[in-house]
């Protein structure tokens, strides 16, 4: 008679009460995120297609889509470059006032967005400290699309810096030294050793900066000028619909913005996953 084998013991769980913790987390996330987003989608889907299209695809709203998403992508791309440079300087070099600069990076997090908008407008207006020198050169920042870009760069920079900085701090210097001993130049070391390690974090910072910029309202509303078809952002169009008690129109615009943001973030996260998997395989092959 063959003896029955006992099932292997289950490994102990790290956190006790996993089911309760998971249920609380899902409930909390549903109340704060899933249910409000679903309510917007259901409110938009509950209206006739003609009225939905009229509210979400009018020429004025389409112009706001182009401005909001275009400037958000441009600001996130600019922040990816200069945020990397700033994180590199804070991590690799010592200079006077380094701690002050490191603290100032978080200023857009703590500063109210309306205060940021007023400060940027006062700085770049025609009679501002910088605007008085830029406008005679033909560069009009305040009350135009360029002002929207400046405001989105201001509020999105910390996301890139704080995402890339820990990865740079944990980067092993032995890899760079080994590449230098093998005859690699500085650009080759950065391109083939440092950048593949930073790429997932850089894409994450880009996604966070983009997501923050798409829905920004407070800091943009003062410096944009809000000229129809020129410098009106999509959140302003939603606020305008709400002030007119056109809740169906506001839900239609919000649902389009929500869908576009979700698709763009999904594409960025897919690219990040592909990049991490590709470089992980390359590292394993080496």
Automatic annotation (TrEMBL):
<feature type="transmembrane region" description="Helical">
    <location>
        <begin position="247"/>
        <end position="268"/>
    </location>
</feature>
<dbReference type="InterPro" id="IPR000515">
    <property type="entry name" value="MetI-like"/>
</dbReference>
<comment type="function">
    <text>Part of the ABC transporter complex CysAWTP (TC 3.A.1.6.1) involved in sulfate/thiosulfate import. Probably responsible for the translocation of the substrate across the membrane.</text>
</comment>
<protein>
    <recommendedName>
        <fullName>Sulfate transport system permease protein CysT</fullName>
    </recommendedName>
</protein>
<keyword id="KW-0472">Membrane</keyword>
<dbReference type="InterPro" id="IPR011865">
    <property type="entry name" value="CysT_permease"/>
</dbReference>
<feature type="transmembrane region" description="Helical">
    <location>
        <begin position="142"/>
        <end position="161"/>
    </location>
</feature>
<dbReference type="InterPro" id="IPR035906">
    <property type="entry name" value="MetI-like_sf"/>
</dbReference>
<keyword id="KW-0764">Sulfate transport</keyword>
<dbReference type="InterPro" id="IPR005667">
    <property type="entry name" value="Sulph_transpt2"/>
</dbReference>
<feature type="transmembrane region" description="Helical">
    <location>
        <begin position="20"/>
        <end position="46"/>
    </location>
</feature>
<keyword id="KW-1133">Transmembrane helix</keyword>
<keyword id="KW-0812">Transmembrane</keyword>
<dbReference type="Pfam" id="PF00528">
    <property type="entry name" value="BPD_transp_1"/>
</dbReference>
<keyword id="KW-0813">Transport</keyword>
<comment type="similarity">
    <text>Belongs to the binding-protein-dependent transport system permease family. CysTW subfamily.</text>
</comment>
<comment type="subunit">
    <text>The complex is composed of two ATP-binding proteins (CysA), two transmembrane proteins (CysT and CysW) and a solute-binding protein (CysP).</text>
</comment>
<feature type="domain" description="ABC transmembrane type-1">
    <location>
        <begin position="65"/>
        <end position="268"/>
    </location>
</feature>
<comment type="function">
    <text>Part of the ABC transporter complex (TC 3.A.1.6.1) involved in sulfate/thiosulfate import.</text>
</comment>
<feature type="transmembrane region" description="Helical">
    <location>
        <begin position="67"/>
        <end position="89"/>
    </location>
</feature>
<feature type="transmembrane region" description="Helical">
    <location>
        <begin position="109"/>
        <end position="130"/>
    </location>
</feature>
């Amino acid at each position: 008679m063959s003896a029955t084998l006992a099932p292997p013991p289950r490994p102990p769980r790290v956190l006790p009460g996993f089911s309760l913790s998971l249920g609380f987390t899902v409930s909390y996330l549903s109340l704060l995120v899933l249910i409000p987003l679903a309510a917007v989608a259901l409110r938009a889907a509950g209206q006739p297609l003609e009225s939905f299209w009229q509210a979400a695809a009018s020429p004025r709203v389409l112009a706001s889509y182009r401005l909001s998403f275009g400037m958000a992508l441009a600001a996130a791309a600019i922040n990816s470059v200069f945020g990397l440079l700033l994180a590199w300087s804070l991590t690799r070099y010592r200079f006077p006032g380094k701690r002050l600069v490191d603290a100032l990076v978080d200023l857009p997090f703590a500063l109210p967005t309306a205060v940021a908008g007023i400060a940027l407008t006062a700085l770049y207006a025609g009679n501002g400290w910088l605007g008085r020198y830029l406008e005679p050169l033909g560069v009009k920042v305040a009350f135009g699309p360029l002002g929207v870009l400046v405001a989105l760069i201001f509020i999105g920079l910390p996301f890139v810096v704080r995402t890339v900085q820990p990865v740079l701090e944990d980067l092993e210097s032995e890899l760079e030294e080994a590449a230098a001993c093998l005859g690699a130049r500085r650009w080759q070391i950065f391109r083939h050793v440092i950048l593949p390690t930073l790429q997932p974090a850089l894409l994450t910072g880009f996604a966070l900066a983009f997501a923050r910029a798409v829905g920004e309202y407070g800091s943009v509303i003062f410096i944009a000028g809000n000229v129809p078809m020129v410098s009106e952002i999509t959140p302003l169009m939603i606020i305008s619909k709400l002030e007119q008690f056109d809740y169906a129109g506001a839900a239609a615009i919000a649902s389009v913005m929500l869908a576009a943001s979700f698709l763009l973030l999904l594409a960025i996260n897919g690219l990040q996953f592909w990049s991490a998997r590709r470089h992980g395989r390359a590292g394993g092959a080496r």
